[in-house]
């Protein structure tokens, strides 16, 4: 009897140890004052900045002014998002098929700035697209198979020469390049370019503009609204300048709320990529 009790005791202890060894999915969402949220694994306060680590192995992060964060809440699971807990049979140094590989820490803000500079787009627009597409979740996967920060479809990623869509740097560079291509395709009509990024160029050409899909219309409006908020906030925070020379346009002028089909060529150097619905 004593031996049986000892065995039962050890069995219970081992079960408890096994439970404590399991990874805890404690992802949170930082809800910003503008209504958007950023999913992250952990956070760190650095002065007036809160650094949100959007990947479980701290491979990438984004810095947000603490004053812009309204509150934190538990983040819902993303359907189809790859989990790191399924690598139990993986040998050391062996890559697991279909899973993103560990990367060196990356500052997403710097990655966005670099890609935006390369393709002559506004980093604020690129960030607005990323927020609308994935909420800064590096490993986000949509029900249709779009992957990563800018939700690139495998076919689109392959066309852009991207081997790992979960690599933040490659994903942002590819998404930014794709948006630039769409802008050139539509004579820098931002509205059409965003619609094509979401619904696909064939749909934009089929309907001669923004397709009559609620999802696409809401997507375009959400990005333009977020982009404009950034520009208006930047103008409000900048030192007041004399209101002379009205003909000189600001480099950070918000996108005008005009008819969806109106060309916005003046936004060429001010807009950043938005993910194509073809990528969703």
Number of domains: 2
Spans of at least 5 consecutive residues with low confidence: 1-25, 78-103, 246-252, 258-277
| Main β sheet profile | 4 strands, mixed
Q: Figure out the total of helices.
A: 8
Q: Structural class, please?
A: alpha+beta
CATH architecture of the largest domain: Orthogonal Bundle
Binned strand content:
5-15%
**CA distance, first residue to last residue:** 61 Å
Q: Provide the residue-averaged pLDDT.
A: 73
CATH class division of the largest domain? Mainly Alpha
Question: What is the helix/strand order?
Answer: HEEEEEEEHHHHHHH
Which of globular, elongated, flat, extended, rod-shaped describes the shape? globular
Description:
The model is unreliable at 1-25, 78-103, 246-252 and 258-277 (pLDDT under 50). The protein is built from 8 helices and 7 strands. It has helices at residues 2-21, 108-118, 123-134, 154-159, 168-185, 190-199, 201-207, 214-237; strands at residues 28-32, 37-40, 42-46, 49-53, 60-65, 69-74, 106-107. The strands form 2 sheets. Strands 3-4-5-7 form a 4-stranded mixed β-sheet. Strands 2-1-6 form a 3-stranded antiparallel β-sheet, with no helix packed on it. The relative contact order is 0.13. A hairpin with a 4-residue loop joins β1 (28-32) and β2 (37-40). The chain is globular and about 50 Å long. The chain has 280 residues and is of the alpha+beta class. The longest helix is centred in the last third of the chain and has 24 residues, at 214-237. The chain has 2 domains: 25-77, Roll (SH3 type barrels); 104-237 and 256-280, Orthogonal Bundle (Lysozyme), CATH 1.10.530.
């Amino acid at each position: 009897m004593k031996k049986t009790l000892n065995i039962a005791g050890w069995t219970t202890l081992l079960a408890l140890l096994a439970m404590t060894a399991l990874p805890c999915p404690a992802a949170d969402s930082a809800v910003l004052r503008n209504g958007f949220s950023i999913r992250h694994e952990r956070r760190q306060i650095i002065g007036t900045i809160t650094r949100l680590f959007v990947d479980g192995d701290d491979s990438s992060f984004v810095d947000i002014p603490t004053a812009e964060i309204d509150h934190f809440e538990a983040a819902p699971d993303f359907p189809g998002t790859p989990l790191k807990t399924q690598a139990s049979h993986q040998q050391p140094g062996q890559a697991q098929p279909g899973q993103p590989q560990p990367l060196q820490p990356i500052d997403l803000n710097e990655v966005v700035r670099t890609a935006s500079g390369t393709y002559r787009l506004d980093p604020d627009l690129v960030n607005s697209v990323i927020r609308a597409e994935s909420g800064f979740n590096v490993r986000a996967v949509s029900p249709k198979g779009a992957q990563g920060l800018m939700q690139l479809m495998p076919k689109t990623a392959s066309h852009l020469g991207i081997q790992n869509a979960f690599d933040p740097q490659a994903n942002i560079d590819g998404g930014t390049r794709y948006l630039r291509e769409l802008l050139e395709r539509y004579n820098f009509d931002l509205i059409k370019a965003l619609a094509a990024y979401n619904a696909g160029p064939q749909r934009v050409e089929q309907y001669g503009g923004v397709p009559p899909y609620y999802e696409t219309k809401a997507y375009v409006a959400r990005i333009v609204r977020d982009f404009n908020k950034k520009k208006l906030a930047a103008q409000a925070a900048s030192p007041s300048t004399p209101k002379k020379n009205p003909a000189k346009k600001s480099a950070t002028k918000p996108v005008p709320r005009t008819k969806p089909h109106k060309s916005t060529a003046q936004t060429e150097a001010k807009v950043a990529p938005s993910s194509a619905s073809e990528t969703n």
